[in-house]
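Progress note, project year one: complex with pyridoxal-5'-phosphate.
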Amino acid sequence: MTAIAEKTEFDATPESNPRDALWPNYNPPKELVFSHGIGSEVFDEQGNAYLDFLSGIAVTSFGHAHPHLVKALRDQSEKLWHLSNVFRIPEGELLAKRLVENSFADSVFFANSGTEGAEAGIKAIRGYQAAKGNTRRTRIIGLTESFHGRTLAALAAAGNQAQMKGFIPTDYGFDQVQWGDFDALKNAVTDETAGIVFETVQGEGGIRPITQEFVSQVRKLCDDLDLVLMFDEVQCGIGRSGKLFAYEHYNVTPDVMVLAKGLGGGFPIGACLTTAKVGNSMVFGSHGSTFGGNPLAMAVGNAVMDLLLEPNLLTEVSRKGEFLQSELKRLTEEFPDIVESVHGLGLMIGLKCVVPNTDVLVKLREHHMIVGKSGSNMIRLLPPLNMSDEDIAKGVKIMSSVLQELRAK
Ligand SMILES: *Cc1c(COP(=O)(O)O)cnc(C)c1O
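Model obtained:
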């Protein structure tokens, strides 16, 4: 066989305008290009190591190039990449069984992303009501400052006006009420309401766990009125909160739950988990995806589950989360003019800033520590679930010197 010509050059010089052929919808720092990662570190093209406290937004939850995940992907890549769901996919049947065995759910639909998982959940809510003959019940209530992804129904469910503007007609079948306000929620329910959707721990809108009182009241309301309760655990699920699923902190279960991000450890995957009563309404032909549940994604998903279900993993996430949160709290006491409070559960942490969060983020990056931003002027920390104590301490040290520098400015 003759060699196939490869075109893999990448010119990152400022003159090259390397992003010219892409939509301007993202705005990454121009001169910084990463070439590889190992564990909690990523390396730029000059070989500088950066400490990764973002994990690609809660995705690479076991760090970069984890040998168990690399092996799973490599082994599967040599066997079968794709068949479509017109045939059985054993790896997907196994992953679904493991998710069911470890959650409230009875069945699973696999998608390729969080927003697709949310779309499946939204359809399942309406599908359930339709199957019961409640044809008027199509409206879904969400909470303010939510995020469910960027496809149209997911945008409408979150109701973020800035993200909806120009893309969503005024009424797309969703209502929003103030986050955590049960009376407002109860008053918003009509005979057209089909279900209620929210993140168990808000991620994009500011790191904010739902309150116990609210979630218990909502569960009861849904039971009384036969409404479908859907939790979006795309960011807070899969061990991030210190439990396998964040709802386990509340002693309340949903009827529908969306997962994605951490479930693939970096390989695109989404999932919608349902109780039998909701899942059974999604009959043959009601929904589908060409790529959803493909063998590569399912093989990696199973490998992620292997790591998640290791004894002690979750207790270690809680312990590390408490350690990091207490260290950050100490920094808020030392630098109250720069950072004011610490929020979150497990290793899903928000550090609320006094100065603009972008200033802190950029300075941290200059010191080779990667973090994210979130609403309410927060710095968002989502380190790998298996980050070592040494690397956590290293991050805290970088953070401390950056806060010192910002104060001196
Ligand atoms: C990231 C995220 C989504 C969307 O996931 P995509 O894979 O980007 O579509 C949905 N819900 C929550 C809570 C998220 O954090």
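The first strand starts at residue 34 and ends at 38.
The radius of gyration is 22 Å.
No further modelling is planned for this target in the current period.
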